[in-house]
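The material for today's practical consists of a large collection of protein records. Getting from the letters to the tokens is the skill we practise here. To make this concrete, we reproduce a full record directly below:
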Amino acid sequence: MAFKSFITIAALIATHSPVTSSFTTNPQSKNGSPTPTSSRRRITTTFMATTTEPETEPTTTPPTSDEETLNPRLSGLANMLDDGTRKSHSLAQNTAFVSGFFKGLGTREAYCTLLTSLYFVYTAMEESFDASELSAVKSLDDAELRRVAALETDMDYFYGREWRGTIAMSGNTKRYVQRVREVAKEKPYLLVAHQYTRYLGDLFGGRMMGGMAKRSLSLDEGKGVAFYTFDDIPNATEFITDWYTRLNDLDLTDVQKEEIIEEANLVFDLNIGILEDLEGSPLRAVWTLTINTLKDKLGLGSS
């Protein structure tokens, strides 16, 4: 608990804002204040949409139809996914995820290993989306969210132009890629879980994560963080609201929806796996991040 608290404090220092307030879509009540139900649905900013803080059961009345229209996360498959993934994740899993990400910021080598794993995973995902003819997959496959080209830009920066013949998958990355290929072939509607878990997580936490990577690793301005940059999405809140609306409109059976929730939880574990492959100290990353951020604030520059 103390370690997780320390990581959270470092994130707050690095981003100048609460870690639970990034890109929320909070409907307003008639008196202009956020509704109790919407205010508790805030994403804890790691790099996945499903990493959320424990919460107590609400004691207020269910959201009205007007509130659900303003915030599609309060109904349908969007609500089912948010609740179904939140409740299944233990404190140990969430802590492993957060500390694993900071391990990836400990050194450039660890960060490059993370980017390499993500490159293989997103290549498998996006090739599967291209090959799929399923309307559910196509309707959520926005060009603005695709990450392979951004990852290639980051790989060029760290490895040079000839990196494609030099990289290899770790064991857990191979397991992740195999799962993507498997569902694409056998149950392509489960790709929706991969879109939800990875792409929305990237968009929710991208600005924060890119800033932390820059400070922790002392990267050149605008370099090495293309993966976390979404220049083609000027208003993330509006984009996410629209994406969730389309998610709720998918023509899926109740059984398929439950399978998608199960798959989203598996994706969470698969991502913990690729983080476990990283070598490095999360404490070192947090310390470097904190010191460099304080130096920036004092006008001393990062070292």
Remarks:
- The radius of gyration is 19 Å.
